[in-house]
Amino acid sequence: MNTATSSAEDTVAMRLGYLILTAFIAALGGLLFGYDWVVISGAKPFFVPYFRLTNGNTIGWAMSCALLGAMLGAFFTGWASDTFGRKKMLILAALLFALSSVMTGWASHFIWFSVWRLAGGVAIGIASNISPLYIAEIAPARLRGRLVAVNQLTIVLGILLADIVNWRIARPLPAHATAAVIAASWDGRFAWRWMFTAVAIPSVAFFIGSLLVPESPRWLAKKGYFERAAAVLTRIGGSQHASSELADIRRSFQGTSRDKVNLGVLWSEALRRPVLIGIFLAVFQQWCGINIIFSYAQDIFQAAGYHITGVLFEIMVTGLVNLVFTLVAIGLVDKIGRRLLMLLGAGGLLVTHSLLGWAFLAHLKGWPVVILVMAAIGCYAMTLAPVTWVLISEIFPNRIRGTAVSLAVSALWIADFILTQTFPLLKGAVGNVGAFWLYAAICAAGFLFILKFIPETRNRSLEQLEMDFAKHGL
After folding, report:
1. Which among 414, 335, 442, 417 is positioned nearest to 382, based on CA atoms?
2. Which long-range contacts does 296-303 make (Cβ < 8 Å, 24+ apart)?
3. Which of 22, 112, 151, 216 has the smallest count of CB within 10 Å of its CB?
4. Where are the alpha helices (DSSP H) in 215-337?
């Protein structure tokens, strides 16, 4: 009896271990996304003087061109993942990350730097779309929030890794080093190159892992490969889990077409509400203002009185705060739910952005600004950052999920591109004070929208959520 019980427990543990390992491999796309997204901030003090960039628009382009690539990558991923499968898109993202990181790092001219940053952005767009989508489609309802949030955890780990790599590679420079001094230094000639190139190492691990994971069972079912879908579900949770899940998946396709989805279908009366909610969540996650702290951390900390070496250290500390509060989010998302966390995030950022605007208005320097920045990052990491990806990956019906997630994530990157491209101009027009107060106003509007329109999705299967939207417009 004891032997049989132990064997059964071992089997369950093995399946849970397999599920977690599969989700983690998919989430490596998030790690590369986080690294590639943030490495530009630490490299900026060195490649800007190296390429002799002096125009605000050109610098804005250097900082945001990868986001344009992310928008393009996210937009075509919906069609490609529906046509070729989720697994092949994971593999493609890994290859693009590896190639673009090396080529960006060793670009000899700014135009090639821009081209390869665009290519890296395409990889970010694919990974940001497909990693949470894939995890949501393999995860059981009771674990879905935590497992999709693991993707945000790896994004945070990627951000922290970029911060640490940037800090360790850069050599100390004089506090008031001129652009000419920086361009002629080892940092100006080589440090930024190695900052970009370092991401090739985890890219190879992601590529190997992506070859080993199974295809999404819901994509297989959509294509009519029900036996293969059952095999994947059985390996994840056993035969009873596979039978129950597959029955629900089959029902979700009854009376609908499993052919390719055109964008017009998404605006039908039955689907319009979840699509608009997904787009709002994606845009709000970017326009809540926190990404400006990540992308322009150097400028913010320098405005608070730090020199270049101190800035890189403070940026690394923000990564640690981001990591700790993301771990808190993973513990909460399946316990207290998505909606409450989203409300806490919007309200918390409303307060921190208002105080940051006041701090710059009062010309505060040093630790008060750092504490407020850390509070904003902690609030975001515990709420909007992971929960937005969870909601986007779970609110759409099976038959349109690939295309709908692609549309929402494309909106996310368009919003981020506009935000990053225009921030230097916005800061020049209204200063740090006006910029942070504008983001505070956006957070207030976001709080009201979440309060009125965002449903709770905790502990419901993807197919149950689909039926709830269809019946009640939830």
Report:
1. 335
2. 296/41, 296/63, 296/423, 297/41, 297/373, 298/41, 298/42, 298/44, 298/45, 299/427, 300/369, 300/373, 300/432, 301/369, 301/370, 301/373, 303/360, 303/369, 303/432
3. 112
4. 217-222, 226-237, 239-253, 272-287, 290-295, 297-303, 308-332
Q: What is the mean pLDDT of the chain?
A: 84
Residue 283 CB partners (closer than 8 Å, separation 6+): 411, 412, 415
Count CB neighbours of 448 within 10 A.
11
Say what the pLDDT of residue 295 is. Answer: 55
User: What's the pLDDT at 297?
Assistant: 58
Asked if 97 contacts 128 with a C-beta cutoff of 8 angstroms, the reply is: no
> Which residue has tokens 């407020």?
372
**Six-digit token string for 81:** 């993942």
Q: Rounded to whole angstroms, how far apart are CA atoms 393 and 284?
A: 16
pLDDT along the chain (474 residues), means of 10: 43 71 94 86 85 83 84 90 94 95 92 94 93 92 89 88 83 71 79 91 94 94 92 88 87 65 68 89 91 62 56 64 90 91 96 90 78 88 93 86 89 82 77 88 96 86 75 57
Longest dimension (CA), the chain: 77
Q: What backbone torsions phi and psi does residue 107 show, to the nearest 5 degrees?
A: -65, 135
DSSP classification of residue 455: P
Over residues 252-295, the pLDDT tens digits come to: 777 655 556 666 677 777 678 889 999 999 999 989 988 767 65
Q: Give the pair of three-digit tokens for residue 153.
A: 């955890």
Sorted by sequence, the CB contacts under 8 Å of residue 108 that are 6+ apart come out as none
Residue 97 parent element (H or E):
helix 86-105
Q: Is 386:326 a contact under the CB 8 Å cutoff? A: yes
Tell me the two tokens of residue 124.
């970010």
How far apart (Å, rounded) are the C-alpha atoms in residues 319 and 221? 40
The helix/strand/coil state of 347 is helix
φ/ψ of 458, rounded to 5, equals -60, 140
Dist. CA 315–CA 329, nearest whole Å: 21
400 with 251: CB under 8 angstroms?
Answer: no
Q: How many CB atoms lie within 10 A of CB 399?
A: 21
CA 171 – CA 407 distance, rounded (Å) = 42
> Residue 446's closest CA among 357, 344, 371?
344
In tens, the pLDDT along 148-164 reads: 999 989 998 998 888 78
